[in-house]
Amino acid sequence: MIKKVGVIVEWDNARLSDVDRAREMLRRLTAQAGEVAAQSGYTFELLLIYDPDEIPDEVPVTVAAECIDRARFPGDVRILPAPSLSYYDQKNFGVSQTDADVIVFIDSDVVTDQGWLKELLDAIEKHGAEVVGGETYLTTDTFYERLCAAFWNFDVNRGGEGMYETRNFYANNVALKRSVCERFPFEPAETFRGQCASLAKKLRTNGIKIYRVRSATVSHPPPEGAKHFIHRAICQGHDALLNDKIRKRSLLGSSPLGSLFRFGRSLINSPTRIWSRRRQAKLGAIGMVSAFALSAAYSGLMLLGELATFISPRLVRQYFSI
Predict the structure, then answer these.
(1) In the chain, N or C: fewer CB atoms in 10 Å?
(2) What are the helix and strand counts (H, E) for the chain?
(3) Under CATH, to which class is 4-220 assigned?
(4) How far apart are CA 7 and CA 160, in angstroms?
(5) Per-residue model confidence as pLDDT tens digits over 35-45
(6) Cα–Cα distance between 261 and 306 in angstroms, integer?
(7) CA distance 22 to 52
(8) Chain mean position to CA 59
(9) CATH 3.90.550.60, the chain: domain bounds
(10) 0.85 cut: is pTM over it?
(11) For the chain, what percent of residues have pLDDT higher than 70?
(12) What are the two backbone dihedrals, phi and then psi, of residue 9, each rounded to the nearest 5 degrees?
């Protein structure tokens, strides 16, 4: 039975995206927490985790003061510095700072849709799930966002209802029982992202089922500007090479030949992905051609990141870190 819910917000992604998204996320999150508390009696603890070496103290403090009415929030709000801790480390740190029965991870660059929090908590309270994620979709407000939505990492918003079993979850949009978080934290890795996939595999190996709720949706922005687009692609290439080298232990996959194979496969698969997303991304013929061109550029930058990592593993982390 749930008594207390800990909501952990990392402030690492707020370095890379429009802080207005973080403001809107906090407004919606606090409103939904109030609604859920009124219906269920849960108490909440909201933890904002940030690295003071990367983000000035006044940024999360000011944004929280603007967006959260602490007198009406159904629990505590804590802003915690976590020096030198990056994305996944901030999440682990947040877990260590709360005694909540359920941990909810939500990122500082996503915006929740109506009912998101209730859907996740109901899946745990009413349906017995131990790990349940929502659907993360890409925004489509501008032409650039629609182009990215046609090919980038997250899917478009396909709608739907119901809960289903899956193999993975998004670390930006998931709820877990505290006992699971304590037994299975995010593990250290040399990659920038992807630890959630490794954790999901470990959970499945240990007999813990992973679910998603189709209607528990949050919107995610595409890379913010040219610099973030370039850095994100190069870092993703860095991770792709290291995943084959470390996780798959593949000599061919972690070689330039493996990188060229992944680049070619991406170019071949991109038209199919763009075609399948064209309606939700609101793209016509010109938009689909433009999306393919942007996708090819992203894949080329990923290839560059892979080759740079093959030559010097520290090169990407030194100059293109996200």
Answers:
(1) N
(2) 11, 9
(3) alpha beta
(4) 25
(5) 999 999 999 99
(6) 12
(7) 17
(8) 21
(9) 4-220
(10) yes
(11) 98
(12) -115, 115
